[in-house]
Amino acid sequence: MTDPIDFHAWPDADGRFGGFGGRYVAETLMAPLAELTAAYEHYRMDPAFIAELDRDLAEYVGRPSPIYHAERLSREVGGAQILLKREDLNHTGAHKINNTVGQALLAKRMGKPRVIAETGAGQHGVATATVAARLGLKCVVYMGATDIERQKINVYRMKLLGAEVVPVTAGSQTLKDALNEALRDWVTNVHDTFYIIGTVAGPHPYPKMVRDFNAVIGREARAQMQSRYGKLPDALVACVGGGSNAIGLFHAFLNDAGVAIYGAEAAGDGLDTGRHAASLAAGRPGILHGNRTYVLCDDAGQITETHSVSAGLDYPGVGPEHAWLKETGRATYLGVDDGEALAAFHTLARTEGILAALESSHAVALGMRLARDMRPDQAVLVNLSGRGDKDVHTIAAREGIEL
Amino acid sequence: MSATVHNRIDVRFAALREQGRTALIPFITAGDPSIEATLAAMKAAVAAGADLIELGVPFSDPMADGPVIQKASERAIAAGTDAPAVFELVNRFRAGDTCTPVVLMGYLNPVEIHGRERFAREAAAAGVDGLLLVDAPLEEAAPFQALLSEQGLHQILLAAPTTGGERRAQLASAATGFIYYVAFAGVTGAARLNAQAVSAPVAALRELANVPVVIGFGVRDAASAREVGALADGVVVGSALVERMATATDPATAGATAGEFLGSLRAALDSTAK
Ligand SMILES: Cc1ncc(COP(=O)(O)O)c(C=O)c1O
Question: So where's the catalytic machinery, residue-wise (chain B) (predicted)?
């Protein structure tokens, strides 16, 4: 028998999770990444930094977020108990702020007066603009022109918070192109700019650092499960765009072999249509945005356009740690198509009075699917990564309703 | 005899050193807007005095490139330019030119998907001499080195203004073919070239390295070519050339445009005594 993997020991010093991760960037960024890594490794052990972060998470973000037992939903599904980790109750309405609070504190410590970010759904952009306003940092957010169109409310929120939103018209005009443009800004302004990446992608140390800042979700959840139910959940479910809310929930449980772990990827119109964003379920190993991971690309290696009703899942790559969790078999990644996600959105709204983000609705849908085949004494913990206010227009439009 | 002795890059730089000349290195995106246009431009470039050709292998997400080369890549991809098409292009170029070195420049994913070993083998068979992978810095390039040298190909490494002293030394000792010094922190095509800032780091690199050092990024015209040409073993001109060729859709115009522009740079470089 081989020893079980200690999942908490990764990544290694080079930022590798098994064969994934690394630092595939232009030479110009190698020194800034080394500087960032050194600063992060220093401050994550620094008691004053930790204390300030904890205070911000408690008093500004509103942590801990509760675990809520969705009893009516569980009854309607008929199977395991469905529990929701309520990241939607955080300030700004999603898990994204866990990470931006941490990175912004780091930016301040590193003496960088300007922060930049990429955003898809706009949640990370809003979360970045929010902390930048609070710390008095200049903030520029890159957003694909297509996403600006479908997430108008978040664009306006960012502007209200004092951020400059730069439309990206290159390529497919979505999240991946916004990330390219942010990298181009960073390479140009490395001397005074801190790039706050919004998910567990990008070059090392981002996949580790963003994970660590979001891992508060799983740490809380694990303690809450033990104190309230005296046991761990039987299964975890989270949606996976780049994978930050998912790894945030999963990480504390990775060495708990009895806890099954599931990621819900956006299957768009369906995995067999080619119009989806399921990099792990339907992609292949490649290199994108500074790391080796699973990507969606054609046979020439060109990254393909993705499709999902939710802008936050519309990404052709995925964090390298998820690629590794897939390969080791520790986690299972399944597709949820637009229709199933929308149905779950409505079921949750009707049974529990919660409007989930479209991204999170993918996790709810997979949680419902899994719960159906489980016993009532079992528990499925679903990460409700964000609230759905930003998606009301999209949902109305899809259902032919004019507001 | 080792394979490197025969690499066209080494042969060309040795000859240039003997003649006291500075290498003129045009960058052209392969397949922009067509393979025929690129082939015509390559031939015209050589006729106008180019010493080495960098051929861009298009990628959908060129994160180190500015708008000019991004658009060129989009046009090339739309025209169906993939690795086999680029190899075929080099093969056709070689039918008429067995001396001018060709370096492929691009990003890792198309190479990974094609297969590293297969890419190296097919590139070498087509007559390619070196490979420059923008998103493979020293650490990520190292595992590729053996595969390439087995095929007689050089791996061209980049150095940048942010590259520190210790790293500069590591780079210099790992370098093969030549070192490409990125003139400023930024993307290709930006107007940020400052010859004064480039001078000291390039001198330090030339001191450390056994291979030539060329300067790229931001060379737009004869004046800037002359200015940085005086500091290095070669000068790369990319965006300024690609931008001029963007309006030239037929092969004849592409060739004429490239030839005329590069001719002016050649004259400027040759006017500097070494
Ligand atoms: C509410 C919500 N959930 C999930 C995501 C997807 O990101 P990740 O996979 O990094 O959690 C987003 C991204 O915008 C989001 O806004």
Answer: 54 (proton acceptor), 65 (proton acceptor)
